[in-house]
């Protein structure tokens, strides 16, 4: 009998963390076939006039997803670039949750966010940072309660955000929606969303305050470099450069061809390679890069990788 009791205790100890890890979001890594105006299933359009996209690959976007292969991309349309009834419209996606959120119960919502300052499509500049507005409700695209409005997401590297909220109503549907950084002077903007997680909160699992990033110490100055660019002067991905989440103390980016010859070098974080070698167009193909930078109290970082020059 004592042995059986011991087995039961062990079983409950095993089940406890499983129950605590219940996930409420469907397809939390936003995986789907890359398509314009179609979010990854079962996420659906909750915007008034247009839908989110499954990225990368649409409208010249080459951003790499932080979790898996794809992410969600959304825009908002500013007054200067659009006329009525398009001006001022936002995009949103929503999904039915895997279980109902209960009033009075605390939940932790985690997701990774970024934006692309070079997002230009057909001459329209969407390269401003959006904010993210989040709603919960009972039915499809229902906005019964706004649970969060972020600060403008103005970083190209992916950063993870976590915040805690308490539903005021029973909710089985969640919406992510773009919002302008400035509602008075509305400018077209973009935002990317990936790697979601929604779970019950527990008092022994502290959460970062809303609008702060839950970032490990070794990624406090994260660097992102695209794996491809197309220097054809169409205003989209014409330059290869590094995007840093901080102001570096020192910076050195070098690009090499397949024979090891240096074709580009910069010590300016804002400068990038335009795809030329001594004034002439470099041939399409694979190149290698080396990025070295320092930040904070002398933290040194080195990154190596390959990029494709597309013609």
How is the secondary structure organized here?
Layout: H1 2-20, E1 44-45, E2 53-55, E3 71-76, E4 92-101, E5 107-114, E6 120-121, E7 124-125, E8 128-129, E9 131-137, E10 145-149, E11 159-165, E12 171-179, E13 189-200, E14 223-224, E15 228-229, E16 243-244, E17 250-256, E18 262-266, E19 276-277, E20 280-281, E21 285-295, E22 299-309
Parallel strand pairs: 8-13, 15-22
Antiparallel strand pairs: 1-4, 2-3, 3-13, 4-12, 5-11, 5-13, 6-7, 9-10, 9-12, 14-16, 17-18, 17-21, 19-20, 21-22
Order of helices and strands, N to C? HEEEEEEEEEEEEEEEEEEEEEE
Proportion in helices: under 10%
Number of helices: 1
Relative strand content: 35-45%
CATH topology of the largest domain: Jelly Rolls
Please state the structural category.
mainly beta
Radius of gyration: 22 Å
* Second rung of CATH, namely the architecture of the largest domain: Sandwich
Main sheet properties:
6 strands, mixed
Report, as a whole number of angstroms, the end-to-end distance: 74 Å
CATH class of the largest domain: Mainly Beta
> What's the β-strand tally?
22
Q: Uncertain runs with pLDDT below 50, 5 residues or more? A: 1-20, 208-219
| CATH homology-level superfamily of the largest domain | Galactose-binding domain-like
Give the total of domains.
2
The average pLDDT is: 83
